[in-house]
Amino acid sequence: MTTTAPTESPGREDRQAVIDRYRVEREKRLRPDGNDQYVEVAGAFAHYVDDPYVERVEREPVTDEVTFAFVGGGFSGLVAGARLKQAGVDSVRIVEKGGDFGGTWYWNRYPGAQCDTHSFVYMPLLEETGHVPTEKYAHAPEILDHCRRIGHHFDLYDDALFQTEVKSIEWDDDAARWIVRTDRGDAFRAKYVGLGTGPLHRPKLPGIPGIETFEGHAFHTSRWDYDYTGGDPAGAPLDRLGDKRVAIIGTGATAVQCVPHLARACRELYVFQRTPSSVDVRDNQPTDMEWFEREVAGEGWQKRWMENFCTLQTGGFADDDLVGDGWTDIARRVRDRVIAKATDGITADLLTEAFDDADFEKMDEIRARVDEVVDDPATASALKAWYRQLCKRPTFHDEYLQAYNEPGVTLVDTDGQGVERITPTGVVVAGREYEVDCIVYASGFEVGTSYQRRSGFDLTGRDGRTLAEHWDDGMRTMHGIHVHGFPNAFVVGSTQAGNLLSNYPHNLSEAGRTIATVVAHAEAEGAERVEVTAEAEQAWVDLVVGSPMLFPGASLECTPGYYNNEGQPIDDRARQSFAGYPGGPVAFFQFIDAWRRSGAFDGLTFT
């Protein structure tokens, strides 16, 4: 194991000043409405979720039966479908509201869209499909193509229903089958169902007064309007914006990627900021295939990389840092400090002190980088992030900060208050109206709302009880997958499981393996039903609710955002929707692997 000497940690007096600044900036942004500050894309706003990428294809309703029906054609559905096929389950149907596979990557085609976790660990099933990403951070078109590659490789297109929204799924206890109904008039049956609608597919709009009155052009980044802007997802210039005044509202991960493209194209670009992102170096590089074949390729290479990244990024120790990016940087710093100071053994206090030192050092560097890159001092000051790095999703980019040096770009910092109102002709902040021709909403996706609102349907299980009713007091599962009262149904996500947010697809990969293993066992045993017991579900809920393992950004000391319930108190109900396995992601992935391999399937009944 090699180490680098840790730099001097911030002085305690300076640190207190930074902590005080963190608190002040957080309090500016607290608001009592929490998630209710956002507008649902329904009614007058329903057009914001129209599919601009493909024409609707009419078809006859489907009324057949399949072994497994999965709702959602993103990574969750693709991975689960692939693992089911590998396990010998041939009749797999994926129902997807988009026109193709991809999920988030079907919708996110805004200019500059990339993954912000190393593509070797982010893109699933690379080894199985034989694909090697062309660069460290793959762009959206390559990720979408990979989703299609998975679909073709595992024959998942054969029974898929695209441009189709599920409206209800009901359990027929006599037949031991689920009845799936959709907006296309479909009413087909499935022995098993999986729910993979995910947290990043339903866009949300900021609840700004007057948002419905704007008379110019407007769209959400997840439905980018290339007919208006020119250009394409492959990176062609946005050549129709040369005479346009454009506002973009939001400065999260999406804006960090698309602002540079807008900055080069617009006559005037106004970036409306409530909270700045922390923007670290991206340093994207093309994949050197000779290096890959020499140093990486080999059976199980992607699993090794995923486990190495997960271990380092969540505070564990490994001899090598295979990914070597901004996500693992703090972990490397913590490791080096612990090694330097652990003369009497590693203690919890030592780990906390090392993490604090590393975080303060890292955020100082990120803020100093702003001064180095941005020419205007006032703009640079407003772009500095005053919170711990993991309080909000870290971003990495080598053009975003530079965009503010373009002559037509103006940062409109709202000092944590957000946009005051929208008029028919522009955007108002602190009493000043900025007249614009177009508003781009980079306001993200619904995360903290109910599962039923995000998915657009409810699941009705045994005795007519809905999932919404079962989860009225908070999410209840075993392993984040199995729900009592809902036999042969599987939920896919990260909550109450690994809860690894830096590489979300890792959670989906483990869930896919688990689902395929359970279904294959049920089929081999000739079981008609598989269900978690009430006792096992309650024991798991007690375990995760009693755990301190909320992800770092869930802390109420953090600036408000979707990581911490928009700064609202995290009661038991909210904790059930945020909590993960007590030992953290690495421990959970080891636990669930052992659970699968045991063949005992503790907590489940097969009848």
Number of strands: 21
The assembly state of the depicted protein chains is single chain
Low-confidence stretches: 1-10
The helix count comes to 20
Q: What fraction of residues sit in β-strands?
A: 5-15%
Helix content: 25-40%
Report the structural category.
alpha/beta
Distance between the termini: 51 Å
Roughly what is the average pLDDT, rounded to an integer?
90
The biggest sheet amounts to: 7 strands, mixed
- Please state the CA-atom Rg, rounded to the nearest Å: 24 Å
Q: What would the principal axes of the Cα set say about the shape?
A: globular
Short characterization:
This protein is 35% helix and 15% strand.
What does this structure look like?
By secondary structure, this protein is an alpha/beta fold. Helix content is 35%, strand content 15%. The protein contains 20 helices and 21 strands. The strands form 6 sheets. Strands 2, 3, 4, 5, 6, 18 and 19 form a 7-stranded mixed β-sheet that branches. Strands 8-17-9-10-13 form a 5-stranded parallel β-sheet, covered by helices on one side. Helix 11 crosses helix 12. It is globular, with a radius of gyration of 24 Å.
Layout of SSEs?
Blueprint: H1 12-29, E1 38-40, E2 65-71, H2 75-86, E3 92-95, H3 104-107, H4 119-122, H5 126-129, H6 140-153, E4 166-172, E5 177-182, E6 187-195, E7 204-206, E8 217-220, H7 226-229, E9 245-249, H8 253-265, E10 268-273, E11 279-280, H9 289-296, H10 301-313, H11 326-341, H12 348-373, H13 377-382, E12 395-396, H14 400-403, E13 409-413, E14 421-422, E15 426-429, E16 432-435, E17 438-441, H15 451-455, E18 458-460, H16 467-470, E19 489-491, H17 504-525, E20 530-532, H18 534-545, H19 572-578, H20 585-598, E21 604-606
Parallel strand pairs: 2-3, 2-6, 4-18, 6-19, 8-17, 9-10, 9-17, 10-13, 11-12
Antiparallel strand pairs: 1-7, 4-5, 5-6, 14-15, 15-16, 20-21
Helix pairs in contact: 2-17, 11-12, 17-20
